[in-house]
Amino acid sequence: MSVLVHTEKCTGARKCLIIGGGVMGLSTAWHLLKDGHTDVTVLDHPDPLAPSRDISKFFRVDYTDPERMKLVLKSKNLWENDDLFKPFLHRTGRIVAYPPAGVDTLTGIDRARSGLSLPARKHESARLLEDIFESTPISQQLEVVYNEDDGVVDWNRVMKSLKQECMNTGGKFQEGRVLHLDSNTGGMIDAVVTSEGFVDAAQTDIILAAGPWIMQLLEASSIQQPPLSRAPIATGIFAFHLELTTQQWVKYHNLPRFSEIGVCEFVCHPTDVGAAKVTWTTAFRNPSGDGALSEPSDVAKTSLAIKMMLDARDWVRKRIPGLKGARFKSIQSYWDGVTGNQNPIIVRHPEHPNLIIAGGGSYTHAKDLPYIGRVVTEVLQGTGTHSQFGWDERPAGKHLNNQPSLYPDLLFGDLELEASRDQRVKDWNRERSDWII
Ligand SMILES: Cc1cc2nc3c(=O)[nH]c(=O)nc-3n(C[C@H](O)[C@H](O)[C@H](O)COP(=O)(O)OP(=O)(O)OC[C@H]3O[C@@H](n4cnc5c(N)ncnc54)[C@H](O)[C@@H]3O)c2cc1C
């Protein structure tokens, strides 16, 4: 076995090893380096199923939980004013359509906004969708708002740029898939075993930021897992990458982006000509064995993926008919770690003093990239109390969930069985003609 990172003479400052180079990991590395930590290593296995590999992300401030909103406002400040992040946030505006079942969410958002002295959202009629997107007239009652302050982040580029900045300030990056962590009799993690060898972790703080794989790694290491309500459960979703004609891209690039809550979202990429994606927002778990674990796996070639692509195609045809002729380029299966109350868990492990767990939440934490690492750094340094990100079981009331429609009640196996019986999926598998909208 080769040793990837050698223990250097302890200088007094502790070393930090961050497992996972996604939102949590990269943001933490940046903040640690800014605070003067000199020995920061990010060990990442860039998995194509990780949400950090996505091409674009929404930025928005609206949540039902005021604490969630306050956290976003801290990142907003950096997205708007820090030269590192500023070039990558594009203020596109966003139309959000809420079905009757989602109206509580909108009411909660208005309540939270009012508590933070932000104006309530102006409610529009569904006619706005017809005016802007030339949608076919909508019989269903939809509550529509236009958030002109929402935007889209040019995701790959901001991640590359932040990684480069970390390297420029002394951060080290290594590729390798962590298999498990070893601890000594005192509970200190002293080695990190990877597919390539192992990392000596003596005198090191370990930040476990492996997103939807956190629970697998804890289990493989026989380390106590957080209570179920705080466990980041791997939750799957499909995104469909589109290739628009240049004319379509120019048109939709200049229009607000569009989310129909609980159904589908359309995002035209802010800079890559022709690129866009639709995300079908039905989320599912993939339980394995007899435990509560859910396992990320590539399900892009399943019947469910085809069914959801056909559903997304029909949605686009109805809601954004100007996209006729655009092509489905690829189906992408992504997984995120979702906790019961949809707050991340950022906490020192109760039994392993040099292990910090940082992950979870729900489909919303890419926008925290500039700030969330400050929270992890404060937990590591013991300088901040962040009880909302703690280990303890806490009530997961619907009102606290910021994305109630994305809580994973559904199981992949059940959905796949249903999809395999769907006549449209069978027809598509025979003819394969509908890659075009
Ligand atoms: C389809 C989709 C769309 C989303 N859209 C938005 C959005 O529009 N706006 C928004 O704000 N948020 C969005 N999110 C949420 C956001 O992407 C996540 O909250 C965020 O990426 C979570 O960050 P993380 O660092 O915890 O995990 P990740 O981003 O998953 O990072 C974890 C990293 O660890 C690596 N890793 C995993 N296992 C190992 C291992 N064993 N060894 C080494 N490395 C490992 C992974 O490859 C990855 O690089 C979306 C999520 C999904 C799935």
UniProtKB/TrEMBL annotation:
This is FAD dependent oxidoreductase domain-containing protein. It comes from the Eukaryota. One of its GO terms (molecular function) is sarcosine oxidase activity. Keywords: FAD, Flavoprotein, Oxidoreductase. Pfam families: DAO. Gene3D superfamilies: D-Amino Acid Oxidase, subunit A, domain 2, FAD/NAD(P)-binding domain. InterPro entries: FAD-dep_OxRdtase, FAD/NAD-bd_sf, MTOX. Its cofactor is FAD.
